[in-house]
Amino acid sequence: MSFEKDNTFVKGRLKSIVFAVKGAFKLATTEHSVMVQLSIGLLLIIAGFYFKITKEEWLIQTLATGLVLGIEGLNTAVEKIADFIHPDYHKKIGFIKDIAAGAVFFAALTAILIGSIIYIPYLF
């Protein structure tokens, strides 16, 4: 099977969108950490409607959720590539995977902080 580049702008962009949606679906249906993060995102959407958060709070909450999911997607890609290249344990591969997981950790901490700033005043 050979790869044929699509030279038309619109058709090429539509194909890119299809690939992106497929990738998002694969992430959401195969990766447990993404499933958990999507569930938390859904709970935050419900909480946002319940507490009637402001437009600005919606924007920041959406950005934080997207940040975590995006970084988690990149982390998953790094892990899959590393496992493909070197299926057995290797110290350097482990180091690379730890760094990618650390990026998710920073994004998640940021999202928790943002969620706390938004929701603690509504709770107390």
Question: Can you give a write-up of this model?
Answer:
The protein has a single domain (9-123), classed as Helix Hairpins, CATH 1.10.287.3610. Helices cover 85% and strands 0% of the residues. The chain is built from four helices and no strands. It has helices at 9-30, 32-51, 55-85, 91-123. The mean pLDDT is 94.
CATH topology: Helix Hairpins
Return the domain count: 1
Strand content: under 5%
Average predicted confidence as pLDDT: 94
CATH class: Mainly Alpha
Query: What order do the SSEs take from the amino end to the carboxyl end, as H and E?
Result: HHHH
Helix percentage range:
over 70%
Radius of gyration: 18 Å
Secondary-structure arrangement, i.e. CATH architecture: Orthogonal Bundle
Largest sheet: none
Can you tag this structure with a few keywords?
0% strand; 124 residues; mainly alpha; Helix Hairpins; 4 helices
Concise structural overview:
This protein is an all-alpha fold. It has helices spanning 9-30, 32-51, 55-85, 91-123.
How are the SSEs placed, and which strands pair?
Elements: H1 9-30, H2 32-51, H3 55-85, H4 91-123
Helix pairs in contact: 1-2, 2-3, 3-4
